[in-house]
Amino acid sequence: MTSTDVFVERSRRWGRTLEDREAARHGVSIRQARDIVARRAGISSGTLETLRSGRLKAVAAHVYQRLWQAVIRDLHEELRRHEHELHLLAQQGLGPADREVEQVMAGISKIEKALEGER
What we know:
Layout (H helix, E strand, L loop, with lengths): L2 H24 L3 H12 L3 H9 L7 H31 L7 H20 L1
């Protein structure tokens, strides 16, 4: 696998992840999510579509960089949501032994691992 293939595959994975998460988060179609992701990342929705379909053979450096930054931003936003939820649970008097807290903590751990893997 060449370095170009690696960059394309990473970009494809990042684009797909961003689109899928956006679609799930807002209950919209992949096409609608693609437009949102493209606007936030500062790239064309056509580039995301071509990436997802596997037709893109090379990725421009600025597209790769913007997708990477968008993934990191998305993970940090998700981490903030989980930390807020944890804070609310603590205000309700729930502690580490409560199932809801354990679930939020597991989510935080998963996000932190993903952030470590993307650096």
